């Protein structure tokens, strides 16, 4: 991946993008990361546009799936 004049590995990208957020985030944190309202964030989750899981009624979103949604990481080739 080309980034700012330097080629980086995808694992380095994962650790550098949204580095101030945990690996699994809440809907509120996801909305901050994407710069969207929580209403829009819930809509994305309910339409399964971003993969997630639920614990009870609480959405949990792995940061990896947010990066793949943004097409920063390619879900099919993440080991390169």
UniProtKB/TrEMBL annotation:
Residues 25-71 form the Helix-turn-helix domain. Pfam families: HTH_17. It comes from the Bacteria. InterPro entries: HTH_17, SinI_DNA-bd. NCBIfam families: excise. This is Helix-turn-helix domain-containing protein. It comes from Ruminococcus turbiniformis. The lineage of its organism: Bacteria, Bacillati, Bacillota, Clostridia, Eubacteriales.
